[in-house]
Amino acid sequence: MNEEIRQCKKCQRDFILEVDDFSFYKKMDVPVPNICPDCRFKMRAVWRNEHTLYNRTCGLCNRSIISMYNPKSPYIVYCNECWISDKWDPFSYAIDYDPSKPFFEQLKELMIKTPKSATYTSIAVGPNINSEYTNFAGGNRDCYLIFNSGPDNENCAYSRGLIKSSDVFDVYYGDEIENVYAGVDVHKSSRVVYGQNVSDCVDCFFVLNCSGCQNCFGCVNLRHKSYYFFNEPLKREEWLKRVSEISGSFKKTEEMRNKFAEFSMKFPNRSNNSLKVTNCEGDYIFESKNVKDSFEASFCEDIRHSFSVKRAKDCADMIGHCRNSELLYNGVGVGAGSRKVICSWWVESSQDIEYCYATRQSNDCIGCDAIKNGSFVVLNKKYSKEEYQKIKNNIIKELKEKSIYRDFLPGKLSPFSYNETIAQDNIKLKVKKPSNRKKFRII
Predict the structure, then answer these.
(1) 351-360 burial string, b = 16+ CB within 10 Å, else e?
(2) Which is it for strands 345-348 and 339-342: parallel, antiparallel or unpaired?
(3) Potential cystine with 58: which of 9, 37, 79, 320 (Cβ 3.0-4.6 Å)?
(4) CB under 8 Å to 359, separation ≥6 — which residues?
(5) Which superkingdom, per the lineage (predicted)?
(6) Closest to 124 measured CA to CA, from 298, 349, 365
(7) Which pLDDT belongs to residue 74?
(8) Count of Cβ atoms closer than 10 Å to residue 326 Cβ
(9) Mean pLDDT computed over 312-330
(10) CA 223, chain centre distance (Å)
(11) If you average pLDDT over residues 49-68, what whole number do you get?
(12) Degrees (nearest 5) of the Cα angle 435, 436, 442?
């Protein structure tokens, strides 16, 4: 099939469907979307509240907890330990599917009454230990206010998008780093301070677009250099002397920060901030190939229209997670060895899942919430394989008739307000504008 131009049914702008897009939709057995990538992103983003956190009380053990759910919301919230425990049964909240009622109305009813985990904590990636103030994270120890991060982070704070890192503060997007402060897009590096677009560097301060460097200060666009000071080579003793005169002094550090900002403007900028990539389009892509229209993707292959994903293969329209998963489409926080998951939120170690919420270690489920170890489940009720397929076909028929099949979950079902989510971070709305308040729930 050839490249095709379509008009988005939401914003009425034209968008392009490429040949590879059609191949992927055919592989996933999904209709070709009539919504542009930007509008599809917004539909998913309103389901991802990473850093708006609240004090609440666990509905099961009554201890004080940190939660991503507003206390004014109608949801029952359990602490992470209670939510993953056997103290309650998600199947006890099952709803009998009623073909006379809209499917999403029934899913909304189920979601409101089924208890929620206080934060998104990926048990499949690993437990968070002494890291209560984290969200969309797993496998972290002694971490504070880090988001979209894990596994194997330790003693990290005020950061987003970390994996396998330790002693890291104030970093946005980093893989396998240690002793790093105030960085953006830092990978496989140690003891880097004020660095951006840095890979395989050690003992570097105020560096931009540098790779394979050691002992560099105030440098731009260098490769495999040592003992450089503002892009000039120095003898080791002279370099150490100059750096020691600055280290420990806030005043001199601020002077260097201002000097470096001015100095870096003299150099040409790269067309993007990606590193070690092959055939990739987007930005902040690391060690990946065949990635299209995606951002903050690490160790990925054959993905498109995705944001903040790691170790994904053959996926499209994803936000977050995706670790060690393939054939995912139109999801938020799906991963941990999942396969063939469509239009779902927080699904891990599962396959053949559609329109589900917080589902783990399951297969063949549609319209479920908090299910674990489920097979052939609709609205948290178990069925035989034959009954399940019949009901699923009925749901698909309804959604196809409404031309919404394989569109993401409706925004009106989202547990979060627009300005609590990353939608506001990426596509900012004027929250006091009346027309925006009609379109979206805003607090």
Answers:
(1) bbbbbbbbbb
(2) unpaired
(3) 79
(4) 344, 346, 347, 348, 350, 353, 365, 368, 369, 370, 371, 372, 374
(5) Bacteria
(6) 349
(7) 93
(8) 18
(9) 94
(10) 31
(11) 96
(12) 135
Dump pLDDT digits (tens) for 103-148: 999 999 999 999 999 999 887 888 899 999 999 998 999 999 999 9
At residue 435, the pLDDT reads 61
Number of helices (H), then strands (E), belonging to the chain: the values are 9, 31
Residue type, 413: L
Angle at alpha carbon of residue 122, lines to 117 and 126, rounded to 5°: 125
The answer to whether the beta carbons of residues 168 and 159 sit under 8 Å apart is yes
Q: Which helix or strand (DSSP H or E) is residue 422 part of?
A: helix 422-426
Of 277, 321, 334, 274, nearest to 301 by C-alpha is: 277
In three-state secondary structure terms, 418 is helix
Q: Which amino acid is at 187?
A: H
Q: Tell whether the torsion through CA atoms of 309, 311, 315 and 321 is positive or negative.
A: negative
Q: Give the H or E element holding residue 228.
A: strand 226-229
> What single letter denotes the amino acid at residue 376?
F
pLDDT at position 31 is 87
Residues 182-212: pLDDT tens digits? Answer: 999 999 999 999 999 999 999 999 999 999 9
Helices (H), 211-314: 236-246, 250-264
User: 235 Cβ partners below 8 Å, 6+ apart?
Assistant: 227
Q: What is the mean pLDDT of the chain?
A: 93
Distance of CA 203 to the CA centre of its chain: 30
